[in-house]
């Protein structure tokens, strides 16, 4: 197994901060660093199953490398981003990138094969820490089977961390289901401010680390002072110039998703929506954001080749190109997901759309206890961002909502103002971790990213080992 050994090369981490974090997570018994010190290295097995998880995973890997006093080795499943941090993925991440309920049925055999392969690889690697990132359908089955196998075989069971708490708060009986995680999850890294407290009240150790999308700010513009506003301003003029778009042509960003199954479901709807909008905006240019997934890239390239509309394909692997495009756009049409947060960072007004298998939609309507699907609306408990869901997700409905948004300055301004509130709620817990420029400590706010807070928890959270 060609797994790159990565050494700790960061000599600028504030050791006072590190000690404060370790004290925060100290309870009894062993933490990951203690476990790794016996072997002279820290072995981390990490699993991500989609593009957003790949980004999160790569950032946490980088933060662990920076903070660990031990050499670090990684193994597991991930994508292109995680490979840059030393991961040689067991198989293509796309093999487990399946969402929904009934949507999983055609992939069940492949799912089982990959699950078995992942468990066997983890057992062989003998990690001190296992970290799963989102993709709870695969992640929880993996963690559950791995722990059961370790117990059955009398083997050491590594610490289990899961990054991105399942949305228990959105479903009937969801909070009670948290107790079911106690047997195979040791610590949950939460991205919403209210989740950690609810997890802890149900006996599950948890830490609020902040929303991972906020790290786009520092990656896009470095440690610039303006990042405190958590706003990304791309170069709109460069985008228009590079693609020969006249300043009088309105640009709409289309973000159809990152998984092939959702893209094939949503993209035809987006395409027909664009055709309807051309009646009101004949010079409209579509900037289609393409996830770094070969299957998605092939599908979209083939689909847009038949368009009569002006179109630009935006690579999802380039932050610069992505945010330049968003800054040049007047509005965006998004499939529900992480991209709604990217619109908040870019302060780009948008409409959120979502369709699924008919049976999956029925389950959602029956089980859901919240009226919204996009995170900004959920946090603000208000339909600030227009949503077209399930049967309402039609080209005519979407084109109407987008037309109103394009023509009404007040509607767009309302979303921009709301974005400021949403970002404030999702910032990493700086004061909780001593990441303040006040007092005796002098730690850059940029060091308190969600991935750094998550890495602290992974390295120094202590669990009583039997």
Q: What would the keywords be for this entry?
A:
disordered N terminus; 19 helices; six-stranded parallel sheet; alpha/beta; 466 residues; seven-stranded mixed sheet
What does this molecule look like?
By secondary structure, this protein is an alpha/beta fold. The protein is built from 19 helices and 15 strands. It has helices at residues 15-25, 32-37, 51-67, 80-83, 108-125, 136-152, 174-177, 195-201, 215-221, 236-242, 260-277, 294-304, 319-328, 339-346, 358-367, 375-380, 395-407, 409-426, 450-460; strands spanning 5-6, 30-31, 42-48, 72-77, 129-133, 159-163, 187-190, 206-208, 251-255, 285-290, 310-315, 331-335, 350-354, 387-389, 462-463. A seven-stranded mixed beta sheet has the order 1-4-3-5-6-7-8, sandwiched between helices. A six-stranded parallel beta sheet has the order 11-10-9-12-13-14, with helices on both faces. Helix 12 (294-304) links the parallel strand 10 and strand 11. The longest helix has 18 residues, at 108-125. Mean pLDDT is 85; it is low at 1-28, 223-227 and 431-445.
> Low-confidence spans: pLDDT under 50, at least 5 residues?
1-28, 223-227, 431-445
User: What fraction, in percent, of the residue positions are helical?
Assistant: 40-55%
Biggest sheet, in brief?
Answer: 7 strands, mixed
Average pLDDT value? Answer: 85
The strand count comes to 15
Termini Cα gap: 30 Å
Label the overall shape: globular
CA-atom Rg in angstroms: 22 Å
Bin the strand percentage: 5-15%
The helix tally amounts to: 19
What topology, given as strand order, has the largest sheet?
Answer: 1-4-3-5-6-7-8
Q: Pairing-aware structural class of the strands and helices? A: alpha/beta
């Amino acid at each position: 197994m060609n797994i790159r050994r990565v050494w700790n090369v960061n000599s600028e981490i504030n050791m006072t901060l590190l000690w404060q974090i370790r004290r925060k997570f100290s309870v009894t018994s062993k933490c990951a660093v203690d476990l790794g010190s016996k072997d002279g290295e820290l072995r981390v097995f990490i699993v991500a199953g989609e593009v957003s998880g790949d980004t999160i995973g790569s950032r946490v890997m980088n933060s662990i490398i920076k903070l660990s006093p031990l050499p670090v080795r990684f193994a597991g499943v991930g994508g292109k981003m995680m490979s840059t941090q030393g991961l040689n993925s067991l198989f293509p991440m796309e093999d487990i990138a399946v969402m929904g309920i009934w949507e999983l049925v055609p992939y069940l055999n492949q799912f089982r094969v990959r699950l078995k392969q992942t468990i066997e690889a983890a057992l062989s690697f003998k990690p001190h820490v296992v970290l799963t990132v989102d993709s709870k359908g695969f992640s929880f089955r993996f963690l559950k089977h791995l722990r059961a196998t370790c117990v059955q075989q009398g083997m050491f069971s590594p610490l289990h961390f899961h990054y991105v708490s399942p949305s228990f708060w959105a479903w009937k009986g969801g909070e009670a289901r948290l107790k079911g995680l106690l047997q195979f999850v040791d610590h949950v890294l939460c991205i919403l401010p209210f989740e950690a407290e609810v997890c802890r009240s149900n006996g599950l150790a948890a830490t609020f680390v902040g929303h991972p999308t906020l790290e786009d700010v520092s990656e896009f513009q470095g440690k610039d002072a303006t990042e405190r506003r958590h706003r990304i301003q791309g170069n709109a003029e460069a985008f228009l110039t590079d693609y020969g778009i006249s300043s009088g042509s309105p640009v709409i960003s289309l973000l159809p998703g990152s998984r092939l199954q959702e893209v094939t479901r949503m993209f035809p709807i987006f395409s027909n929506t664009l055709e309807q909008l051309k009646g009101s905006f004949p010079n409209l240019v579509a900037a289609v954001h393409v996830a770094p997934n070969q299957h998605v890239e092939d599908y979209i390239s083939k689909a847009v080749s038949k368009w009569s509309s002006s179109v630009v394909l935006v690579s999802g692997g380039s932050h610069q190109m992505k945010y330049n495009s968003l800054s040049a756009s007047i509005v965006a049409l998004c499939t529900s997901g992480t991209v709604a947060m990217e619109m908040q960072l870019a302060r780009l007004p948008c409409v959120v759309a979502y369709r699924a298998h008919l049976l999956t939609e029925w389950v959602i309507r029956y089980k859901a206890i919240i009226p919204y699907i996009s995170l900004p609306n959920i946090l603000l408990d208000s339909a600030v961002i227009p949503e077209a869901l399930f049967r309402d997700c039609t080209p005519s409905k979407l084109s109407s909502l987008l037309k109103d948004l394009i023509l009404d300055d007040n509607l767009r301004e309302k979303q921009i103002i709301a974005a400021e509130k949403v970002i404030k709620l999702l910032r990493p817990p700086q004061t909780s971790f001593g990441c303040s420029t006040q007092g005796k400590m002098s730690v850059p706010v940029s060091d308190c990213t969600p991935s750094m807070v998550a890495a602290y928890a992974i390295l120094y959270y202590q669990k009583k080992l039997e």
